[in-house]
Design a protein that fits this description.
With 213 residues, the chain is α+β, with helices and mostly antiparallel strands. Helices cover 49% and strands 14% of the residues. The radius of gyration is 20 Å and the shape is elongated.
């Protein structure tokens, strides 16, 4: 309970949450200078908040030279990495109620087979959601708002958080299929023509990614 409370308390401060979210999205250890620049803070303020996140158990810290750079004179910089999602607090964001609602509606509708009915419902939910988003909403922004933690690379948008993580781990084929249908509906509803959601299972991130057509 103490660990959970410490995590919630640490992330209640907006600057601290911004730093935590930034470090979580990176694929390399982040030093204080990078974190400060990315969140528009002074180095001293970023260092203070980063160390508070370490105390709360949300980040780990060590001293290491930047990757790909020779070690220069002076003290080796302190770098920070996420400790994982072992805490029971909802970090990163989860949306289990969405999958539960789709499955409940599919079963209540009485269509057979129920899994196919749920897939059709998931697609419609994605399209319906796109209709209530801000006009001109870009797909990366929409995915970020839904908690998928998108990262754009040439030709691909990878999703570094699965909002359905625990369910997907237990019922992979079903939940990943619903997720794929939901994101396809969202992309179609937003009128995206340059990329399409594809199933691409990968340890540590969402089973769906967007690829250029």
């Amino acid at each position: 309970m103490d660990d959970r409370w410490n995590a919630v308390t640490a992330l209640s401060e907006p600057s601290r949450r911004a730093l935590y979210d930034y470090v979580r999205r990176q694929d390399h250890p982040v030093d204080r200078e990078e974190a400060a620049a990315a969140t528009a803070m002074t180095r001293a303020l970023a260092a203070f908040h980063l160390d508070k996140l370490v105390e709360a158990g949300l980040l780990s810290a060590r001293y290491a030279a930047p990757e790909g750079q020779p070690r220069g004179r002076g003290r080796t910089p302190k770098v920070y990495e996420p400790t994982g999602d072992g805490l029971t607090v909802t970090i990163p964001e989860r949306r289990y109620e969405l999958i539960a609602d789709i499955l409940a509606e599919a079963v209540a509708g009485g269509e057979q087979p129920a899994a196919e009915a749920a897939t059709r419902l998931a697609y419609r939910r994605g399209r319906d959601l796109s209709a209530v988003m801000a006009p001109g909403q870009e797909v990366v922004g929409a995915l970020g708002a839904l908690g998928f933690e998108p990262r754009s690379d040439p030709g691909t948008v990878t999703l570094h958080n699965c909002p359905f993580h625990a369910l997907a781990a237990r019922h992979t084929a079903l939940v990943c299929g619903l997720n794929h249908a939901f994101l396809t509906g969202l992309v179609d509803g937003l009128g995206v023509t340059g990329s399409t959601p594809v199933l691409a299972p990968h340890a540590g991130r969402c089973c769906v990614e967007l690829r250029s057509r």
